Each structure stands twice: as C-alpha cells, then as structure tokens.
Amino acid sequence: MHVICVASQKGGVGKTTISLNLGLALARAGNRTLLMELDAQGSLCLSLGLPDRARPGIAEVLTGAEHIGNVLLRTRDPQLHVLSVGRVDPTTVAGFEEALTRTGMLTGMLSKLESEFDLVLLDCPAGLGKVTSRALEAATHVLSPLQAEPLALRSVGQLLALVDRVRAEKNPRLTLLGIVLSMFDRQTPASLEVAETLWTRFPGGIILDSVIPRDEVFLEASLRGSPLLLMQKRPPPLARVFDQLANDVLDRLDTHGGGATEEDDGPIPLLV
C-alpha cells in the first residue's frame, strides 16, 4: 500500500482540493483509494458538502468508540472511500491532535487498512506541525502543492528540510513524489516568474508536469460540494488536469504494471 502525504509548509495552497480531485482520479484509474482527513478543521468533508463534523471518523477511532472499518465513508465510486476526522469539537482540537500524534497511532491505523487499499492520500493540516511530521513518518511518499506566488517559493525549503530529516531519523522509505504547482495564473507576471524559477532551479523530476491553474470552477465545485469530475454529466475541461496528475503519480509510483522492460522494449503489434 502506498501512503501519500499531501503536505505544504504554507496554508491555502490547495491541499484539500488536490487531495479530493486526485483521489477520485486515482480511483477511476482502478486503484482502491482512501482519502484520509488529518486536518481537524474538517476541510475535506466540508468540501464534499457534508455538515460540519456530521459523521464519526478518526476521533471516534482514537477514543475506542468506533472500529476503523465502521467509519469509512463510501462514495459514488466503489474504489474510493473517505475517512474523516470525525466529531472533533473546536475546543478539543489540541486533544485530538495529541492523541493522533502519539507514537505508532497513525501507523497502527494504516496497518489495519493495508489489505483494503492500494493508495492512501493523507490530507494534512496547513504548515509543518506535529500532525504533518507524524504523517510523514507514516507515509511512503510526499506530494507537495506549491502555490504559484513568491512567498510559497521562498519557503519551500522548509518542507524539503523536514522531509530530509524525517527520512534520515524516522522513515528511510519516505520518498518525495514531487511538487505540483497550484493556483497558477498565466496572466500574472509574478505567477509566471515563480513557475519559471521552479522549472529552472530544481533538479529534473522534482516538479511534476501537471499544473493546477487558478480558476473559478474550483469555487463552483466547492459550492456544490463536489469534485470536478462529478460536478455535472460532462465534467469541466479542467477536470482532465487531475487525470493527468493521477497518471504522473502512478508513473512515479510504478503501479501501472505490465509495462515494457528494457529486455522487451520495442514495437507492439496491433493485430493479435
């Protein structure tokens, strides 16, 4: 099971939007996918139009009130499930985070799901606090959205340093899946400059080819409580970006299978 931590050193960069739409795209590609909400604000379920803290989830698992298998939310796509934070009262967020970040707690929950899912996306809270650190310790990969604006670019080194430290001290299997440029506005010079800097400064392979633009369609999707692919019978063209992102992710995870190897690399006959 691949566990992808969706994390950023900065808030408001589109982590939840990317987690939601990427998760559905991965499921539609045939992968048993779980969206696991680690942000106590409950942004993922709010994005799905669910009433605030309406369903039991991780909080109830932590207290022993529920078994993890009983709080998985089914979706319209049978390959996609959601695990919400549960009923976390705003006044008890610190207690929830303390329980979640106890040594072995998150990895223990994930181990119980290993036989049921191929991919898990951990939608982390903003910043590089203890919840995000624990998520990185439990993950196999990290995907980082980076908003196409100067402050995000200047602070990206903070995330990379944390990933290196976690890999060295806690989780040697942790791999940087890549950085995905989000909220890109080709009409804004500063946004263009950030994108150009990313593509020229960082080594090849760190920046994913897929780019998430700034677009009002995301606000409309949030208003409807729906991922882009399910907004209407004919999804908006922007939804294809997440199919491309899913392909980029799967290529880097090498989960497609059945591909050509160096030994058999060559033309494939059309007729059989």
UniProtKB/TrEMBL annotation:
<dbReference type="InterPro" id="IPR025669">
    <property type="entry name" value="AAA_dom"/>
</dbReference>
<dbReference type="InterPro" id="IPR050678">
    <property type="entry name" value="DNA_Partitioning_ATPase"/>
</dbReference>
<protein>
    <submittedName>
        <fullName>AAA family ATPase</fullName>
    </submittedName>
</protein>
<feature type="domain" description="AAA">
    <location>
        <begin position="1"/>
        <end position="175"/>
    </location>
</feature>
<dbReference type="InterPro" id="IPR027417">
    <property type="entry name" value="P-loop_NTPase"/>
</dbReference>
<dbReference type="Pfam" id="PF13614">
    <property type="entry name" value="AAA_31"/>
</dbReference>
